[in-house]
Each structure stands twice: as structure tokens, then as C-alpha cells.
Design goal:
about 35% helix, single chain, 15 strands, alpha+beta, disordered N terminus, 5-stranded mixed β-sheet, 5-stranded antiparallel β-sheet, about 15% strand
């Protein structure tokens, strides 16, 4: 296999390790700085990163002539010379261990912005970028501005350094005071704002979920989170309104919001954010369900821990996300408030024009 050493850009060394990738020259200067244009090529490549080394890698999924550009943010991607270029499928490691964003350009001039969906963190597997999703009118959510996560008490020094390279400025925490005190967040040195909007559903806390699990009441375990999602919508509008007020302040991003598992309170926060930007319901539910893949919570795993019994099934439904959970929240919004747009604008005070200008390409 041929090894090609590519030029060092202003911000990183990049090494190519598959046939068909060649060094870039000054003859390839590009003046068009649009991140999306032409044919939709978002499925032609993906960017992932190793949680231990933090190094990103690009996988080209379609044969064709391409170029890859990069930068520290969407507004600073360098187009005067690509990081990589080639004409074959394959995977290449990018030499930087810092957060970066990318733009893929195809031979016909089509472009697409690329980012890393799941950030490479040892201490939190469900920390992810909400960028890249397509809206109903064909626009895309900006990468690198809004992130969702679970609790951040186990982040390593290397994790924190990576988050500082974003640089993460604001952390919004939906956990109760008791949860925060028991497992305080670790945050990067770049964090300026630590904002708490505690959501502690009273109806849920009155349910003895431990007893539900002990007696193996599967239906009650599922109903616990169905009811919780209804209550998030009806009883915690003030907290979600404050969350949106923070999102609409231009000095608060890059911003991350989280709860404990990053799936219920944060799951609804992500759904509302994407809905405000015009992302369709199917995509919103897909993002919600991605938690199961990223956290690795499975029924088989619970049975391995607790035995092949109803207690294990209960633990699975409590520890995972299910479509009926988020669907209860969305249906409550539709039935009680006249639909998502009215709920966002009338109940939560969201300025849809403003938020879309801030977070859409």
C-alpha cells in the first residue's frame, strides 16, 4: 500500500494511507466558500474519531474524484488548498487530535459539510454534535455549535482538552440539584457559562421505580418514561423556555446541554431544538433513538447482567429510549398545544426566524 505524505495546512498534519490519495498542490486554489452546493453528497463520506487518540478519520464511500477541506469551525474552513484529494473509496486517518470540521467536494463541484456525530470521549459515549441534519426546506443544521450529552463527571483530561479545542463555551445542565451534587460535571477550561435548568418530574419521583423493577412489572417500567415525557411537556415549559433563550444568545455557543443519561430530558431538548430548525419528525425520532446505539444499552446486555427474567427487561426499558417515549411528548404537543410550531412560539417563546438564521447553513 502506498503512503502519501500530504502538506501541512495552517492547522494540522494530515497523512494519507490508502491508494488513490495524492498530495495537494497550489494549483487547486478554490474561492467558493459555500459548504453545501449541487448534488447532495452527504452520503458519499463519513467522519469518525478514535476516543483514545482523538484522531479523526475520513471514509470515502463512493468512487469518484474528490477533495476534502478542513478548518476549526464552519466559518474558518480553508478552501485555498485541500487537505486530501483522491479518486477511490477508502479510509484515511487525519493527523489532528483536535476538534475540526470538514467540507467534501466532488468532481462535479458539489459540496457538503461534514462533522463527527459522536465525539471521541472516553468518559461519555453519548456526547454528540447535532449538526448536519436536513430540514424540510432542504437546508442543513450547522455543525460544531450545539451538542447533546449525558453526565460529564467521568471525562478524562484528554476528553477535556478535546472539548476545549471546539472550544466549548456553555454547559446547560437539566439535572436536579441532588444529581449535580452527587456527580458534578467536569468541564473544559474554555467553559464560560454553566447554566442549570433543573427538571425533576414530581410524578416520576413519587413512583417507586425500584419496586417496579424488583417485581418485574414491564408495563409499569415502560409507562414510567411514557408518563415522564408527557410531564416534561406539560410541567417544565419554563425550563425549556429558558433553554431556548440561552440558545438564541449569540455569545453562548458552542453549547452543550445534558441530563444524567442524556436520553430523556436532554432527548426532548434535542427534539425541540431540531423541530425549531425545521427538521422533520422522522429524523428527530431517529436522533432520539441513536442513544441506544451510542450507549450500548441492549436487552441482551441487561439479561447478561440480571438474568433472563422480567427484572432485566424492566432495566432495559428504564435504561434505553423507545419510540413511544418521545412520541408521547410529540403527541402531547400536538393534542394540547395545536402542534409543534405553536408550542415553540407561544409556549416557549421561540423566535423561529432568529434561531434558523443562527443554526442553519
Amino acid at each position: 500500500m502506498k503512503e502519501y505524505l500530504l502538506r501541512m495546512s495552517k492547522w494540522c498534519f494530515v497523512f494519507a494511507a490508502f491508494a488513490g490519495v495524492v498530495a495537494c498542490s497550489d494549483d487547486d486554489a478554490e474561492v467558493n466558500t459555500d459548504l453545501y452546493s449541487g448534488t447532495d453528497i452527504t452520503s458519499y463520506a463519513s467522519i469518525t474519531a478514535n476516543k483514545e487518540t482523538k484522531k479523526a478519520r475520513v471514509e470515502i464511500l463512493k468512487d469518484g474524484t474528490w477533495k476534502l477541506y478542513g478548518g476549526e469551525s464552519s466559518s474558518s474552513i480553508v478552501f485555498d488548498e485541500p487537505l486530501l484529494q483522491g479518486s477511490t473509496k477508502g479510509m484515511t486517518e487525519l493527523g489532528t487530535s483536535k476538534f475540526q470540521l470538514y467540507c467534501l467536494e466532488w468532481s462535479d463541484g458539489a459540496r457538503a459539510a461534514l462533522g463527527i456525530r459522536r465525539l471521541p470521549l472516553v468518559g461519555q459515549s453519548n456526547f454528540r454534535d447535532l449538526g448536519g441534519y436536513k430540514t424540510k426546506d432542504g437546508r442543513r443544521v450547522k455543525w460544531g455549535l450545539v451538542f447533546r450529552s449525558g453526565k460529564c463527571n467521568s471525562l478524562t483530561d484528554e476528553d477535556l482538552a478535546y472539548l476545549a479545542s471546539i472550544p466549548l463555551k456553555t454547559v446547560v445542565d437539566f439535572r436536579s440539584n441532588e444529581e449535580r451534587d452527587a456527580e458534578p460535571d467536569k468541564v473544559p477550561t474554555t467553559t464560560i457559562n454553566r447554566i442549570n435548568f433543573p427538571i425533576a418530574p414530581g410524578n416520576l419521583s413519587s413512583t417507586d421505580i425500584g419496586e417496579v423493577i424488583r417485581r418485574g412489572d414491564v408495563a409499569a417500567a415502560k409507562q414510567y418514561l411514557v408518563d415522564g415525557n408527557r410531564e416534561f411537556v406539560t410541567d417544565f415549559q419554563a425550563e425549556y423556555k429558558s433553554y431556548f433563550e440561552t440558545l438564541m444568545q449569540t455569545d453562548k455557543t458552542p453549547l452543550m446541554f445534558h441530563c444524567t443519561a442524556g436520553k430523556d430530558r436532554a432527548g426532548l431538548a434535542a427534539a425541540l431544538f431540531l423541530a425549531a430548525l425545521g427538521v422533520d419528525r422522522e429524523t428527530i425520532v431517529e436522533d432520539y433513538m441513536l442513544t441506544n446505539e451510542l450507549t450500548g444499552v441492549t436487552l441482551e446486555g441487561m439479561k447478561a447482567l440480571y438474568g433472563d427474567n422480567n427484572m432485566a427487561v424492566c432495566m432495559y426499558y428504564i435504561g434505553s429510549v423507545q419510540k413511544e417515549y418521545i412520541e408521547m411528548a410529540l403527541t402531547t404537543i400536538d393534542n394540547n398545544y395545536g402542534g409543534m410550531e405553536k408550542f415553540l412560539t407561544q409556549q416557549l417563546g421561540v423566535d423561529l426566524d432568529k434561531i434558523r438564521k443562527l443554526y442553519l447553513y
